[in-house]
Write a structure and sequence with these properties.
The protein has 11 helices and 9 strands. By secondary structure, it is α+β, with helices and mostly antiparallel strands. The chain binds 3,4-dihydroxyphenylalanine.
């Protein structure tokens, strides 16, 4: 609205000024940046703005009114300037504050935040590794019950009730006449009955014995049972498989030692020892100062066990082994106390992860460089 103030009384001038100040108020609600405030400033107080237009014509107002008109316009101009300046100042402070708080939020000199990472339990990790090796060789992976019948745990494995070999396996007997399996061997006969020959199967699992706890004895531990039945399987197959298995798991060529061993379910029975991976044969408490650790009891499946599994021993032969999985994981990761594995204490296990599957001490137990590049569980 363009009024000519020469014709205006003071009342209409004030109305016009009020109108301009309403424009200011509206403009300020919209102006959220300094630039927008500047534009508003120019549009209201600039050369071509409404206040300037009013000022230009003051001299034409009748002398009687001129003073009052001039005062009213100047007062309005000052109020508008003050409002605009105030808004600019507060926007400037807000921008500076934002800059400071952004700087506070990110401080590149602070150390990174530590996030503990989960990892697979060392025993599980070695178990998966062994499963991979054996599935590559055509073995299936089986599981059996942890609560086992006397028949499968002993009888069918050629360990009758009065056999002294039962004493070697301190057994948790249950009130229902069953027991907690003392080894994974019962799954041998279960697999024979289920699948028949030829047969290649691997059985990882938890076993239980009534043991007093110490650094190398647990009442709950893991084994992996292996069973291969076919025509003309010989002990040479067994030894070749043992060498492959242990070298792959330790990621280096290991040395084996073979001794006779007695287990009622194999004939002949042998003990395969591995050179101690902790001390490299220099003799330490882990290898009971012998340089060797018993790792793989095994042998050729006893004819009585084949018969118990409904397999004709004149047609088929086979080997079996019972790998101490817990002990192997301890060897592999340099864990000296078996109790940490079941204690639910994450600290030693997080330490194990850093070893990322390599043998514990470089140069220990080697007869060659570490063999890397073997597939491992993620
Ligand atoms: N079951 C035996 C144990 O826990 C280990 C074992 C020995 C398993 C010889 C076998 C074997 O398959 O052939 O003491």
């Amino acid at each position: 609205m363009d009024l000519d103030i020469r014709d205006m009384d003071l009342f209409s001038l004030n109305a016009r000024l009020e109108q301009i100040e309403t424009e200011l108020a509206l403009g300020l609600t919209r102006a959220v940046t300094l630039d927008e405030v500047k534009k508003l400033d120019a549009s209201l107080l600039g050369k071509d703005g409404p206040l300037n237009a009013l000022m230009k014509v003051i001299k034409e107002v009748s002398p009687a009114n001129r003073g009052a008109v001039g005062q009213a316009i100047n007062a309005a101009k000052q109020r508008i300037r003050a409002s605009l300046d105030e808004r600019s100042a507060s926007l400037q402070t807000a921008a500076a504050d934002a800059e400071t708080s952004a700087a506070l939020l990110y401080d590149p000199t602070l150390p990174g935040r530590f996030r503990p990472m989960g990892c697979v339990h060392p025993v599980t990790s070695v178990q998966w590794e062994i499963e991979r090796i054996f599935t590559r060789l055509g073995f299936t992976i089986e599981a059996g019950p942890e609560m086992e019948t006397e028949e499968y745990n002993f009888e069918a494995l050629n360990i009758p009730a009065d056999h002294p070999a039962r004493d070697m396996q301190d057994t948790f007997w249950l009130k229902n006449g069953m027991c907690l399996r003392t080894h994974t061997s019962p799954v041998q006969v279960r697999a024979m009955r289920k699948f028949g020959p030829p047969l290649r199967t691997l059985v990882p699992g938890r076993c239980f014995r009534y043991e007093t706890l110490d650094a190398s004895h647990e009442n709950t531990f893991h084994q992996v049972e292996g069973l291969m039945i076919d025509r003309d399987i010989s002990i040479a197959n067994l030894i070749a498989m043992a060498k492959l298995l242990l070298s792959e798991v330790m990621h280096r060529e290991v040395e084996l030692r073979i001794r006779p061993g007695f287990f009622p379910f194999v004939e002949p029975g042998i003990e395969i020892d591995m050179n101690c991976q902790i001390c490299g044969g220099k003799k330490c408490p882990t290898c009971k100062h012998s340089g060797w650790v018993e790792i793989l009891p095994c042998g050729m499946v006893h004819p009585n066990v084949l018969r118990a599994g409904n397999i004709d021993p004149d047609q088929w032969t086979g080997f079996a082994f019972g790998l101490g999985l817990t002990r192997l994981a301890m060897m592999k990761y340099g864990i000296r106390d078996i109790r940490v594995l079941n204690a639910g204490d994450l600290r030693p296990l997080v330490g194990v992860r850093r070893l990322s599957g390599a043998v514990i001490q470089e140069g220990a137990g080697t007869s060659g460089p570490p063999r890397l590049g073997i597939s491992r569980p993620e």
